[in-house]
Amino acid sequence: MSTDKSFLTKRVISADGPKADELTHEASLVEWCATCIEPEEESNRRRSVLERIHNIVRVWIHQTMVSEFRMPEAAAGQVEGRIFATGSYRYNVHTSGSDIDMVLIAPSRITREHFFKILAARFAQEPWVKDLHCISDSRVPIIAMKCDGIDIDLSFGTIRQDRVPEIITDDLLQGLDEQSILSCNAVRVAHSIMDLVPNKGVFRQTLRFVKAWGKSRAIYSNTFGFPSGIGWAILVAFVCQCYPNQNAAGMVKRFFKTYHAWFKPNPRETGVNNRAIYLTESMRGATQLGHSWNPQKPSDASALFPVLTPALPYGNACYNVTLTNLHQLCDEFKRGFDIMNSSLPLSAAEARAKYGPYGVWSKLLEKRPFIGHFPHYLHLQVSCAEAAEYQAYVDGVESRMRILWSGTAMSRGQNMEDHKHLRLHLNPRRYEDPLEVKRRALVPREPAARGSYQQDSPRRLSTASAGKDGGVTWHTAHYILGLTVDASQSRKIDLSGPIRVFHNDIKSKLKMLREGVTRLPIVRVCDTKHIPQFIKDAEGYTDAPADGATAEGPEGPRADGRESTTTAATSGEDGERGGHVVAPRRPVHVHARGGERWAGGHRRVVARHGGGGRGGRPPGEPQARTRGAGGSGGGGK
């Protein structure tokens, strides 16, 4: 990694300090940041956990070198690995309850097999380690575990040296496999970001706020196609480079100003690609470490949301962003830009009186309204009959969820994004019925076999505990996506094709479907009335009274009070009127296997799918990383 940072002077747009209004509102932002710092007890517990993990790894490496490679004790004592923190903990912007991303860089001869079989089993013996899972088939394989109540994601890489230095330079990556390069680069990227920002304190404050804003506005989830922690960190760092003398309030203002203008929601229509964000002197880098992002390569140049990692080989940290995600991101950048422009002229007292305890920052952080905000919804249900496999299956399906709206390279022209009159409003939140969660927690657990990488595996629920009908008990995760249709649309829109592509992708990519254990996600169209009550409760939504109720659109109730129509249902004929498929008062059920189902006396129209389609990610698109608790990929949260 280069130490020459003279190019940063050319990156500066303005070296001015904060303006008067930015100084005025800085205090309330600092107050908000102070509320995010974890309690000292939890901070001490984190440090204790990291120290214990480090000691276990140190002893494990020493014992492996002696027992497996017959190395003398003295020589084995000179072999040393190193554990690095990445993500929010590395930037010191973590919050109470957040997890820690860690990378173990091991010396030569220590393999990934040692990591998953021996080290994982060693961790499983510790009484303070719970819920240990090895996720070995993801793009960045990890051991996911809960250590003394703190979620840990530990990935692995190895270099061709007996001692791992503090700084992982480019030459140390030569000859490594792709997974080791990715793991090492998570460390290198975190180091480079901190090295390339001019004011680390302002960077941390701004990043802490932007991450909270992204979560509150439902645009923070790598698996759902939004930027992950590393993506947001790069976006914030770039603005810090452009305005090196700003305070945090001024930096947040320029964050929205920059990206409201930078990213356009329709690059494919205009033919003008969105420009890449990069922190280094150039976005091009000669390397022998595999593919590095290249603006001359069409697949790279046409990326919708290119945010480049600052360590060779360069890669797009936001490769998962689809056209639907891009629209939503641009909407939120504009909202932030408008709020800052209209609210910063207020005094701090006026802003507090108008918006809440932190003034303009309270307004920016308002949770995005969702339930009851759109006329129609897609309700996805992902189910698994085995408590032990439920988490992994749901994480796997979630990592492929974006295929539902963006499709694959083989399905262009028939995806949801290709319906010009249809728009999906994404919500990355996963909902679970509290009663199911309690029942799953009571499932008896049996100790894992010696050397197993999965600790305390819950037994599969038997039919004896499955319910009165003696059938299988399904554990289900729910997702709710908003759905709007252009009022000028005059023809029926059939979503059976995109759903079939989604199902085929799950069957071909996950390899996790087992008869009676897992099943394809159920996708149905519904209105607010038919969203499960526990989801409404989780969102704090209260049903409006039936008398005088009005239909609601994306910006609230329709002015004319007439019932909205949707063309987004199925290939069935129920509710058809004037060329539209009207959203029936009862939910429309869309399922890949076709046929009609009756439940509780209500007819449900089912999309009849033809033959199977081909699924897969576009050429060059890596598989998203999943984790035991629904985390994100790309080396950051």
Write the layout of secondary structure elements.
Blueprint: H1 8-11, H2 20-35, H3 40-67, H4 73-76, E1 82-86, H5 87-91, E2 100-106, H6 112-124, E3 129-135, E4 142-147, E5 150-158, H7 178-196, H8 200-216, H9 229-242, H10 248-262, H11 267-270, H12 298-301, H13 323-343, H14 348-355, H15 360-364, E6 376-384, H16 387-399, H17 403-406, E7 422-425, E8 431-432, H18 434-441, E9 445-446, E10 457-458, E11 475-485, H19 496-509, E12 522-526, H20 533-539, E13 552-553, E14 556-557, E15 576-577, E16 580-581, E17 588-590, E18 597-599, E19 602-604
Parallel strand pairs: 2-5
Antiparallel strand pairs: 1-2, 3-4, 4-5, 6-11, 6-12, 7-11, 8-11, 9-10, 12-17, 13-14, 15-16, 18-19
Which structural traits does this protein have?
637 residues, alpha+beta, Poly(a)-polymerase, middle domain, Beta Polymerase, domain 2, Alpha-Beta Plaits, 3 domains, 19 strands, disordered C terminus, nucleotide-binding, Poly(A) polymerase, mRNA processing
Structural overview:
It is found in: Nucleus. Residues 444-468, 539-637 are annotated as: Disordered. Polymerase that creates the 3'-poly(A) tail of mRNA's. One of its GO terms (molecular function) is metal ion binding. This protein is an alpha+beta fold. It folds into three domains: 8-37 and 198-364, Orthogonal Bundle (Poly(a)-polymerase, middle domain); 40-191, Beta Polymerase, domain 2; 376-443 and 460-542 and 555-604, 2-Layer Sandwich (Alpha-Beta Plaits). Helix content is 35%, strand content 14%. The protein has 20 helices and 19 strands. The chain has helices at 8-11, 20-35, 40-67, 73-76, 87-91, 112-124, 178-196, 200-216, 229-242, 248-262, 267-270, 298-301, 323-343, 348-355, 360-364, 387-399, 403-406, 434-441, 496-509, 533-539, and strands spanning 82-86, 100-106, 129-135, 142-147, 150-158, 376-384, 422-425, 431-432, 445-446, 457-458, 475-485, 522-526, 552-553, 556-557, 576-577, 580-581, 588-590, 597-599, 602-604. Strands 6, 7, 8, 11, 12 and 17 form a six-stranded antiparallel sheet that branches. The longest helix is centred in the N-terminal third of the chain and has 28 residues, at 40-67. The protein is globular. The model is unreliable at 446-470 and 546-637 (pLDDT under 50).
